[in-house]
Amino acid sequence: MEQLRGLYPPLAAYDSGWLDTGDGHRIYWELSGNPQGKPALFLHGGPGGGISPSHRQLFDPQRYNVLLFDQRGCGRSKPHASLENNTTWHLVDDIERLRQMVGIDQWLVLGGSWGATLALAYAQTYPQQVSEMVLRGVFTLRQQELNWYYQDGASHIFPDKWAQVLSILSAEERKDVIAAYRQRLTSSDRQIQLEAAKLWSLWEGETVTLLPSSTAATFGEDEFALAFARIENHYFTHQGFLTSDDQLLKNVPLIRHIPAVIIHGRYDMVCRLQNAWDLAQAWPEAQLQIVEGAGHSTNEPGIQHHVILATDHFAGK
Description:
Elements: E1 15-20, E2 26-33, E3 38-43, E4 64-69, H1 88-102, E5 107-112, H2 114-125, E6 130-136, H3 143-150, H4 159-166, H5 177-185, H6 190-205, H7 222-237, H8 247-250, E7 260-265, H9 273-282, E8 287-291, H10 301-314
Parallel strand pairs: 3-4, 3-5, 5-6, 6-7, 7-8
Antiparallel strand pairs: 1-2, 2-4
């Protein structure tokens, strides 16, 4: 059997700060690795998930200079769980401001799940700024993808866990779960918000890995759940603020020249393998790596292995 690659050793950020967007948000960012290394950008999932120290460890610290940031409203960015001026295109603008702040021309972009969505949106807007792409757990925000995970699909694989999501909804509300949760997550009553946020967030935390994980409980922590659920639901209510259901697939010709690796778990229940397959069909130059025995999370050993192989490859190792 192939020896699986593990994370690089833990390391601290060598610089960090906040970017004032000028429209009410302060974006937390950090740089890690080698200041003279190959520039790279890490995009976290959710939207609303935030970065963690382990994300730094997906890159060789001797060869990469990596920027990570908490997207609007989550992690250490302020204001917490804010939906104001918080759209895909605000985030794309934030990324470009951060690139200019660091003072580099091009960077490798790595994104997983919603991070892959945002990576596609950014690259299609600024293709000249992206040197390579690593996309994990592909999510293109089509209505069929939202229906699968929040209406009728994954619910058949996890009926016991889906029952918890439905537990606070009336029979009528269950016809449109995203809309019903929108009402609660934007309520003026914090307790109503929090009850809905924990149920929404734990649904993902408990289905994101192939096998049950002890990390699922963190999805139910108050502050994380509020940002994660409110921001995700906000984006999904608005179909990611895209102009068409297939915008990200339709615009693949804008980025086909960019070297790319697409990594997807065979048994990903959050984002079906079909998503990655459809992207690869539109982008034949990209390398599609289907990971057997893996679900959705970067923490899946096989997923982690292939992500690190990809970053090593693009570092010239």
